[in-house]
Every structure is written in C-alpha cells, then in structure tokens.
UniProtKB/TrEMBL annotation:
ATP binds at residues 97-103. This is UDP-N-acetylmuramoyl-tripeptide--D-alanyl-D-alanine ligase. Residues 299-413 form the Mur ligase C-terminal domain. It comes from Maribacter spongiicola. It is an enzyme of class 6 (ligase). GO terms for cellular component: cytoplasm. It is found in: Cytoplasm. The gene is murF. It comes from the Bacteria. Pfam families: Mur_ligase, Mur_ligase_C, Mur_ligase_M.
C-alpha cells in the first residue's frame, strides 16, 4: 500500500494504536517490535479488539485484507507521520535540550493555546516513535503543533527533523545528559544543535536563549532568530524577580508569578514568553497562562506530606539538573533541609566522576541530612548516608524517621522511582 493510500485510510479513521490493550474501535494498529515483544503476533488480537487495519511486516501474520504487509512497520509509521505533516497547514515548533524540555513544551502550549488551536507532545513521547505519533494527532483545524524531541545519541535529532520538518525551533540548554550515548558534553552540544542545523539550512526561524553563550555564539550571524535575555539589551528583556520558591518574572513592567520553583525554571518560562510574543499572543494572556500552569508528574512539584515541605523532582536527573536543583534548594528560606538523591543514569564512563561531583557539591552545601541512594552513589567517597538501593532506603527511613517538619528535596533518574519515598515519610 502506498503511503498516500494509507493516509486516506487514516483520515477516514484518524486514530493510531501500538498497544492492543488500548485499542479503540476503528483504530489503525501498527505492529511495532521491541527488544521483548513482536507486535506482529498481536495482529489477530488487534482485529478482535476493534482495529480497522493492522500494519504488519511479517508475512506469516497476514489474516485478510484488513492486514497490510509492509517492509518495516516503524518506517511506515514515520513515513505516514511525515506525509500527514506535509498535508497539514499547521505550523510546527520543535524543541529539544538537555533539561526542561517537557516543562517548556507544556508552557509553550499553555500560552499559545490561549489564541490558537494547538496540539502538543503528550508526556514525553519524544523519540522516533513518539514524534510520529504526535504528528498524527494534528487535526484539520490545528494551527500550531508543539513537538518535543529527545535524543541520546548523535544524528537522532537530525532524523527527527526529517520526520517533523519544523518551521521553528528552540533549544532549552546544553547539559550533562545522556553522556554515554553522546560521548561527552561536546557530543551533547553537537547532537542537540542538529535542530539548529536543520532550521538554518532550511531558512527557518529560531527562538534563542541569548543568556546561553553557546546558543548565542552558534547563531551570532543567523538573522532569522528572536531571542530573550536578562542582560543583553539587544534582545527581548525578561528579568527574574525572585525564586523563593516560585519563579516570578518581570516582562515589560508586568510581573508574572508562576507556580514553578527554582531559578532554573526561569529560562523555561522565558522560552514560552518569547514564542508567545512572536505569535502575537497578548501579554496579559501569556501572564494568565503561565500563572495558571501547575507542574505535575514528579517534576518540581511542591507537596506537603505529614507536615514536611517537599520538592519532588523525581522524574529524571543528570549532573546539570542535579546541580541546579541542589543549589536552588540551598537558597530557599526553609529550615531543616534534607536531601534524598538517587543515581543518575546513562552517564557511561563519566558515571563515577559525575556522582562524586554531585556528592561533593551536596556535602559542601551543608544540608542537615544527606541521603544518597543507588549503586553509583554508594561507591562515592562521602560522609553522607549511602544506601545501595530503594529497599535499603526503605529500611533506613523506617528505623530512622525524618525530623518532623523537614524540608525535603527528592531527586533522581526515572529508573530510581524515588517518588515512592512519599509513602515512607
């Protein structure tokens, strides 16, 4: 089947599924493969569950004319998404970066949706599967699509750009994330900059954090850019008023008081503000949208649990985000500060050094209690309480309850699932 024919079938029933447990009537099921599963084997189940068409790439699973055999299911999904994107009149904004992608994406969607019909990446479906699935949610009346792009190796952003073909792009920052796949910080910069390379080579528009010297230098001669800065008057001026604990900004003498904690969220807000400005969103609408947004899903959430003041930031972690989280928490006007940190993943050969650096930083900030959890933190040279895994943490907190009314920062990589600590304190 040609992509245009498959697209016609998709337009008749514009709903895609890759999981037979979630199929709705008339879905098109893509039988994707993974390390531990083969979607082809679920072809019959998909049809029985209500799928109208099943896309497979192994001939033995052909059932009837409702099963369509292609060379590769994933490639077909990506081609369909690109074809759909080309047919759409929606403008596509893509963003990537080491930290803050998902929060920034949510903020951009919040401000633009005050004025436009938008769609945006759900959660963090930002890879070679998630980006196509997001593009396929573009509807006929969609005006702007906000697409988050994640990457853990060189050429991944370049590949995603070929699928999404962005009209605009924004990079939140360059940090120490996925060092194992990128081969170091220089690899991170090179990999994330593939978005800028696509945009500049296609004469597209770029949104720029001019307070970031790397971004500013890379785009010094490119003219199709709109930037923000807190220090350089050549760019749109946005000032950080305070972050105690919530970020308050000053924009054209208007104060915006957000529900986001930490100075590290300042640039995330600025990215949304500059994009809203470009698309002529009224500043008061931007203010209302930013002030209404409340983070969830374990991202910089403020919680009160049994009298404790908790900053739950357990969705992900890398050396860059860990450092700013520690420094921000140290700056808060709170008493009895307790830190619970979990291992940072995907650091490769840098793991030992980076965990030691974070341990040293946390120790030097003189928190009342410092607990390090995970195999990498356990091997650090530290005076902190070091525990090999979550079970040891559970045992420790059971025997040694935290001081009443403590202020607690909980941060670690997703695989550590440190939000489970909430049940222990």
């Amino acid at each position: 089947m040609k992509i245009q024919d498959l697209h016609s079938a998709f337009l008749a029933n514009p709903s895609i599924s890759t999981d037979t447990r979630k199929i709705k009537a008339n879905d098109i099921f893509f039988a994707l493969k993974g390390d531990n599963f083969n979607g082809n084997t679920y072809a019959q189940k998909a049809l029985d569950s209500g799928a109208s068409i099943v896309i497979i790439d192994e001939e033995e699973y052909l059932i009837d004319d409702r099963t369509i055999l292609v060379e590769d299911v994933l490639t077909t999904l990506q081609q369909l998404a690109n074809f759909h994107r080309k047919q759409s009149k929606a403008q596509v904004i893509c963003l990537t970066g080491s930290n803050g992608k998902t929060t920034t994406k949510e903020l951009i969607n919040a401000v633009l949706s005050t004025t436009y019909k938008t769609i945006a990446t759900k959660g963090n479906l930002n890879n070679h599967i998630g980006v196509p699935l997001t593009l396929l949610t573009i509807e006929p009346d969609t005006e702007i699509a906000i697409i988050e792009m994640g990457a853990n190796h060189i050429k991944e952003i370049e590949f995603l750009c070929k699928i999404a073909e962005p009209d605009y792009g924004y990079i939140t920052n360059f940090g120490k994330a996925h060092l194992e796949g990128f081969g170091g910080v220089e690899g991170v910069i090179k990999g994330k900059s593939e978005l800028y390379e696509y945009l500049t080579s296609h004469n597209k528009n770029i949104f720029l954090n001019a307070d970031d010297p790397i971004q500013k230098t890379k785009l010094s001669t490119y003219t199709k850019k709109l930037g923000f800065s807190s220090t350089d008057s050549k760019y749109y001026t946005i000032k950080l008023a305070e972050a105690q604990p919530f970020v308050h900004l000053l924009v054209e003498d208007i104060r915006m008081e957000t529900n986001l904690i930490g100075a590290y969220n300042f640039s995330n807000c600025c990215g949304a503000i500059i994009i809203a400005k470009y698309f002529n969103v009224e500043l008061n609408d931007t203010k209302k949208a930013l002030e209404k947004y409340t983070p969830d899903n374990n991202r910089s959430q403020i919680l009160n649990n049994r009298g404790h003041y908790i900053v739950l930031d357990a969705y992900n972690a890398n050396p860059s985000s860990m450092s700013v989280a520690l420094e921000n928490f140290h700056s808060l006007n709170k008493q009895r500060k307790v830190i619970i940190l979990g291992d940072m993943f995907e650091l490769g050969e840098s793991a030992k050094e980076e965990h030691q650096n974070i341990s040293d930083l946390a120790t030097g900030l003189n928190f009342e209690e410092l607990i390090l959890v995970g195999e990498n933190f356990y091997l650090t040279d530290s005076i902190a309480i070091k525990l090999k895994n979550f079970e040891e943490l559970k045992s420790h907190l059971t025997k040694n309850p935290l001081h009443p009314k403590s202020s607690i920062l909980i941060k670690g990589s997703r695989g550590m699932a440190l939000e489970r600590v909430l049940d222990l304190i």
